[in-house]
Amino acid sequence: MPEHIKVVACCRPFTPDEESKGLKNIIKISGDKLIVEAASKEQSFGFDGVHGHNETNARIYQDQCEQLLKRSFEGFNVSILAMGATGAGKTFLMTGSEKNPGIVPNLNRSLFQHMATKSNKEFFITVSYVEVLDEKMTDLLNPHSNPMKVRQHPHKGIFVEGLSEIVVKNVEDLKNMYEQGTRARQMGATDVSGHRTRANSIFTITLEQKEMKTSRVGLKSLIRLVDLAGTESGGSADPSILAGVQGVPNILSILGGQGKGRAVPYRDSKVTQILQDTLGGNAATLVFAVVSPTDKSYQETLTTLQYAQYAKSVKNSPKMNMVSDMRKM
Ligand SMILES: Nc1ncnc2c1ncn2[C@@H]1O[C@H](COP(=O)(O)OP(=O)(O)OP(=O)(O)O)[C@@H](O)[C@H]1O
Ligand SMILES: [Mg+2]
Predict the structure, then answer these.
(1) Superfamily of domain covering 3-323
(2) What share of the chain in percent tops pLDDT 70?
(3) Pick from 70, 85, 210, 228: most CB atoms within 10 A?
(4) Which residues surround ligand 1 with Cβ inside 6 Å?
């Protein structure tokens, strides 16, 4: 059954730096609406949910993502994307801090809690973590210089050839892999403001399961957790930079906006090749539109909200994925 991509807006609090500069707040929340107030004009945007600055990532996870995790146990692919401008709070939402863990650590904990309640089932879990920056892919779990390629396989679906896939057995294993990869992202940074914001990072959990003692047939779900490049950084003339930062917004505007009916140029960028199922395909997708509260980010905020509006009318067709020969620990 086709279903719309779910889109939820999140607005972070002021940072201490923004406070000290005396920037103004331009964001108001009213139910499922986010209202941008600037230059004596109000623009209102409706979403499937809206979270303001006083909500923890754990709360946002519970309200918006736990449902999706349940669907992954039913064999559906699930994707959660954070979209927004530089400094809007994408990484804080997905990764979080020690005191306020993000979507990924919350999902990790819940994933293994669910598994513990299903004692009649066998599970097999792997993770991979790839960063796409200016059309170059980096394997964050095992940095190497071997070539990697996005491929499509009749049974395996879309995958990155050459990307490490690591088996994880418990919450700690998964946490360690995610943290190790996230550190590799940060270490690779050369110029913090201009460069990192163009990176897209995709952490994929593959969940396979079957009834114990029965046939080998089971269910398989890909859970993709994505921290996208900044939506505003499209001003460059370099085609590989443009492809990386404009790839996903472009697809959203074609599938959900003016471009409806046109051929969808997934192949124009690596990130959209990898996320083909996430955007208009075989996955239940949630897009977080992440915005900063300040007047300084007015233009970037409107850009993000415009793409988020397109995302709302994109239709996906998630299917239950069977595997005939489940892998084993
Ligand atoms: N919910 C929040 N609570 C407190 N601080 C936050 C929150 N969200 C974001 N911040 C802070 O705001 C700043 C920008 O956040 P973050 O690094 O997550 O942005 P980003 O969208 O990932 O930016 P970039 O595109 O540069 O990677 C950071 O200092 C972060 O700690
Ligand atoms: Mg970030």
Answers:
(1) Kinesin motor domain (3.40.850.10)
(2) 95
(3) 228
(4) 12-13, 15, 84, 86-92, 196-197, 230
